[in-house]
Request: fold
Amino acid sequence: MSAIIIDGESVAGQIRNRLIEEISALKKKGFHPHLKAVQVGENAASRLYVQNQQKQCEAVGITYTLDELPADTKESDLIGHIKKLNNDPQVTGVILQMPLPDGIDAKKVQTLIVHHKDIEGMNPTNMGELVYGNTRLAPCTAMAAVELVKSVGVEIKGKETTIVGRSAIVGKPVSLLMLDLSATPTICHSGTKDLQAQTKRADILIAAVGKAEMIKGDMIKPGAIVIDVGINRVKEFDAQGNPVMNKNGKQKMKTVGDVEFATAREVASYITPVPGGVGPVTVVMLLRNTVEALKMHANVTP
Ligand code: NDP
Reply:
């Protein structure tokens, strides 16, 4: 058996098209989405991320603006800035770019973004709504994993679902979202005694560990749906095990997931690739949350 590869770009594209229509309808009613990004200090990775966010937002009709604060900004000043944005009626969503300079408590500041502008779904109110089953704004990667499961079109109700990883940003919210869909989730972590026993009985397996290719084919139930959230940079080797070098004489790097794709695809029925699976859908979830935040902000019923 060779699994069907779930194309994250295609799933993302379908959601993006629905968002374009929705945003256009909201604008006709006088509601304009405006996502404000806040960046503290200069960081090459975060700058790239900002440029990509801007492009993605503008492509669907979301206004995107960036506030750049100096690297020596104090935590109290950043909190003051966030509070100002919380009260700014022109701003409908706020995203705080990571990493923040040393000395700033990222979690503390991020959770101060008012819940109806919290497009990353990290505010305790939004986390609480997730527990209550009233989810509107949830962490983007968790929602992306669930969208990819849904995209397969099989009934989720009653499915044994194993989630490997229990972080607040992925593992825990994925478990709650799957529970809301009446799956039967099991959450694994570094203290889990027999991981293979847990993964092997999963009809749906969601890996969010951060360990390159840790989940092998023999840990997967035949016919399972496998969603690989992991993003790991590893050194590249050729089929003979020799390092693959770039033109500068340095060993090439590549991105792999938490699942060993080659062995897993021989066992699973559906599998997401890395890259090209969860990643593109996560970006679109950020856009969808921005639209959801606009509706909450403007009190527009969905
Ligand atoms: P964290 O490091 O916060 O969490 C990792 C989880 O894996 C922890 O709960 C940890 O357990 C568990 N774990 C570690 N080792 C084992 C093991 N041997 N057996 C079972 N469980 C184990 O990671 P994140 O949740 O933030 O991210 C997970 C992965 O997803 C990373 O590769 C990250 O890069 C990727 N990611 C991808 C995104 C995307 O857009 N595609 C976005 C966000 C993350 P314990 O709690 O006991 O320590």
Q: What stands out?
A: The pocket of NDP is lined by residues 141, 164-167, 169-171, 188-192, 195, 208-211, 229-232, 278-279, 282 (CB under 6 Å). The mean pLDDT is 96. Residues 140-278 form a domain with the Rossmann fold fold (CATH 3.40.50.720). The first helix runs from residue 8 to 28.
